[in-house]
Amino acid sequence: MDNFLRRLKYYGIGFGIGMLFVFFFFKNKGCAWTPSNRVKSAIFERIIVLSEKEQQRLAEMHISNKELLQILRDSDIDFQKSEKSSRFKVYHLNCTSKTGKTFVVKITLGEDSFISEVQLKDTKSSKIKYSDKGFGKFIYFPKPKDLIYVDTTDLLICQQEALKIENNNKLYQQIIKTGKIDFEKSNLYLNPKPEHFITFKDKKNRAIAAKGIWFMDKIEIVQLFLDFENDCK
Q: What's residue 164's pLDDT?
């Protein structure tokens, strides 16, 4: 019994030291179960978007997209200043650039949207809305190859054949390379599912548009719009 208690004591001491190491040396970054990291995980499961206006602000701050993504990962979430009581959540992030400049980011996290929009403004979270004009640049995509799938209607199958995009992954790669979201044509507050209007180019540099919804952690393409003559009806 004494041996067991001694081992249990050593285990407890070791576990306690390990927890302190994680919390104080790694600032909770190694703890996936913390509220902050759960929110960041949810954000990075989506496509992260910057509007044209925010792209200009970022350029004026001399911060690249790559640096911004790392800043978001390293940021501190102020839950007191975040809007987290509705289906359209907005989180207040206190950020620091590599040059030591501090600034505030608001980032959206709609439950039924596959995008998170970054806004570089210190406005109340409850006042933040999706952009409704212009285009948004995709600056981050989740890694899964099967993130996008196309509905299997005869029309969509025909359109994919016309585009010579044989599978969903090839469509995804084209969107990664040339895609952007059209805020004006999107309906990001529609119930029960927001509609996202994406524009991109095919391999022949022809303009394509796609309407997609967020379904079971996947982007379902429900309509394609081809800006060239084809036999699909």
A: 85
